[in-house]
Amino acid sequence: MENSEDGKRYIIWFLWKQNISGSEILYEMEKVYGSKCPGKSMVYKWIDRFNDGHSTVDDYPRPGRPKTCSNQENIKIISNFLDKDRRVTLRQLEEELGMSKSILDKILTEQLGMSRVLSRWVPKLLSESQRIERVRVCRQLLRISKKEPRFFDRLVTGDETWLHFYEPKTSLQTSQWKRRHEATPIRPRAVASAGKRMATVFWDTKGIIMIDWLPNKVTINTEYYVQVLKKLREAIKSKRRGKLSSHVLLQHDNAPVHTSRRTLDEIQHLGFELLPHPPYSPDLAPSDYWLFSEMKRPLRGKRFSDFEHLRSAVNSWIQGTPEKFFTTGINKLPSKWKKFIEVKGEFIENYEQ
After folding, report:
1. Per-residue pLDDT for 3 more than 70?
2. pLDDT confidence of 2, banded at 50, 70, 90?
3. Do the Cβ atoms of 201 and 208 come closer than 8 Å?
4. What does 107-121 look like in DSSP terms, one character per residue?
5. 249 in helix, strand or coil?
6. Residue 149 domain-assigned (yes or no)
7. What domain range includes position 135?
8. Same domain, yes or no, for 210 and 308?
9. How far apart are CA 224 and CA 298, in angstroms?
């Protein structure tokens, strides 16, 4: 009796009669029933009915055909329900609509062609004006690149990233094959080490031009970044002969130290031409969508005792990475600009590609 639907409703009624709140009723029932406890929506539904004077634990009579098959009426009911709340669960639908899970599952998958998916992560929910700005900048960059045949040869892009002395492997890196009868492999939860260093990396189609490692207990500010840009000019002069005379196209994001008046003045003084970059757009920055994930991949799962070992590992990766890798990353920009124009400035899935 107590495990039947009517039994659970009697318990809700009994506790409600004692003027116990809905949250307390749900709490008490969860202690007793555990995973078989009625859902929150059902508990509150019956509390509302009792408050409205409903004197039994029987459902309201349902006129017409029982909701036991996937007819057009039931399909429409479920579709309307999902239009109001896409996060509703099968259990909640079962309680609200009085249909079995098998019928609900059939209607959802076969009739409505729906499946339950996880929300996709994006850096930020963009406003309409931000999407419009992303499209405008992409169109501008496409026009500039088409007019200038040496556009990508002149381009230098850069950004900052944290590199930890220990960073755990990703779930993909730890995946492995198993037979059906074997248990799923397990691994302990791991977190990145507290020890880390920030690297400011500048690169072009030929490779890494310069890495500036932020010293310990130093904060990157405008004055510091201005000095980094001066170092960048000297690195270009020594490593990319003739690039300065062709006027460097500098691409970096809209971090405050990148957009301050002092920084902008220094960029002009150094003879660089700054390319526009829309806010909240790591998907349009080659360092974010291409370089950093690959640079960190061989470092994951390894422990570095100090900064020198970390820097040595990064330098080894740079030396072993062919020029084609960097060229490919930069040359992806036009296709990305076109794609974001097509999707009207929205983020696309898997932008780190």
Report:
1. no
2. low
3. yes
4. IIIIIS-----PPPP
5. strand
6. yes
7. 128-176+190-342
8. yes
9. 29
